[in-house]
Write a structure and sequence with these properties.
Distance between the termini of chain B: 33 Å
Structural class of chain B: mainly beta
Strand order of the largest sheet of chain B: 1-2
Largest sheet of chain B: 2 strands, antiparallel
Number of strands of chain A: 11
Number of helices of chain B: 0
Helix content of chain A: 10-25%
Number of helices of chain A: 2
Number of strands of chain B: 5
Strand content of chain A: over 45%
Radius of gyration of chain B: 20 Å
Shape of chain B: elongated
Oligomer: heterodimer
Strand content of chain B: 15-25%
Helix content of chain B: under 10%
C-alpha cells in the first residue's frame, strides 16, 4: 500500500522517483555506493494573454476592440506550467456599473480565433460572473482562445479582469525519471 | 529482480526497508535490516513526496510558499557492512 501511495505521489509531482541498483560488494567491509541527483518539482499554471502575446502576470484586462455599438476582445488562456492540464477555472471580474454579466464569452477549441471565426469548435461559456470550469486538455505552452463580446458603452464604463486558476487536481500526472 | 524504472513496479517481491521519513532527518544513517549473499544484488526504489500537493495557481502565479518548481540536490550514500566472519572446515 505504501508503495502505491508513494508511486502516485511521485507521478503527480513529476518528481524523480529513482530506482537505484546499488552494487553491494561482498567481502569489503565499509564499502559504499554513492548516487547524487537533483529533484525538481513540476508546476501547474495558466494565465491569460492577449491573443498571440505572452501571458500576463496577474489578471488580464481584455484588450477591447470597439467597432460600432459592439466591442470584442480576443484573449488566450495559456498553460504556463510544466504539467499538462485537464481543465482551467475562469472568472471575469468587473469594476463598474455594468457588472461582468454584460459580457459574453465563447471559447474556441481546436485553434485560435480568427476574428469572429473559430476554426474548431466554439463553446459558449456564458458571462463568467462565477467561476467556470472549462474542461480542456492543454499541453504546456498550449493556448485556449476566448472571445469576449459586450456593448461598446459597457466596456467604456467598466473595467474587466480575467482571472485564471488551476488547482492541482486539474494537472495531469507527471512523468517518471530514473537514474 | 530489478525495478521497472518506467512504471515503478516490481515483478518480484517488494519489501519495505525504510518507512516514509523526512529527508532532513536522514543526516544520520538509517539502518536497513537486510542481508545479501555473496555476489547478490539488492534493488532499491526511492520515492520522493512533497508535503502539500493541493495548492491552486492563480493567474500563472503559485501561492507563497509553494511546492512547485523547487529543486533540491540529494546525495544518497549506501554503506555496506560485512557480516562477522565464520570459520568453516571441509
Amino acid at each position: 500500500m505504501r508503495h502505491r501511495r508513494g508511486r502516485l505521489a511521485a507521478d503527480l509531482l513529476d518528481l524523480a522517483a529513482v530506482a537505484l541498483l546499488v552494487p553491494l560488494l561482498g567481502g569489503a567491509a565499509g564499502a559504499a555506493a554513492v548516487r547524487g541527483l537533483t529533484v525538481t518539482a513540476a508546476t501547474w499554471a495558466a494565465a491569460g494573454a492577449p491573443t498571440g502575446d505572452e501571458p500576463a502576470s496577474g489578471p488580464l484586462a481584455p484588450p477591447w476592440s470597439r467597432g460600432g455599438s459592439r466591442a470584442e476582445a480576443l484573449v488566450d488562456v495559456v498553460a504556463t506550467g510544466t504539467l499538462a492540464l485537464t481543465a482551467v477555472e475562469l472568472r471575469l471580474e468587473a469594476d463598474g456599473p455594468d457588472g461582468a454579466g454584460a459580457v459574453t464569452v465563447t471559447a474556441c477549441r481546436g485553434g485560435p480565433w480568427d476574428g469572429a471565426n473559430c476554426p474548431g469548435a466554439a463553446v459558449a461559456l456564458g458571462d463568467l460572473t462565477g467561476t467556470t470550469t472549462v474542461a480542456v486538455a492543454l499541453a504546456p505552452g498550449e493556448r485556449l482562445g476566448l472571445r469576449l463580446e459586450a456593448d461598446r458603452n459597457v466596456t467604456n464604463r467598466t473595467s474587466f479582469a480575467l482571472r485564471v486558476e488551476v488547482p492541482r487536481t486539474a494537472a495531469t500526472p507527471g512523468g517518471r525519471t530514473s537514474g | 529482480m530489478a525495478w521497472d524504472a518506467a512504471a515503478g513496479t516490481c515483478a518480484g517481491t517488494e519489501s519495505e526497508l525504510l518507512a516514509a521519513t523526512k529527508v532532513g532527518s536522514l543526516t544520520t544513517p538509517a539502518v536497513f535490516a537486510s542481508s545479501l549473499p555473496a555476489g547478490g544484488s539488492l534493488h532499491l526504489q526511492i520515492v520522493l513526496t512533497l508535503p502539500d500537493q493541493d495548492e491552486t495557481t492563480v493567474d500563472g502565479t503559485p501561492p507563497d510558499p509553494t511546492v512547485q518548481g523547487a529543486a533540491v540536490d540529494l546525495t544518497y550514500t549506501f554503506t555496506m557492512v560485512q557480516r562477522d566472519p565464520v570459520t568453516t572446515s571441509g
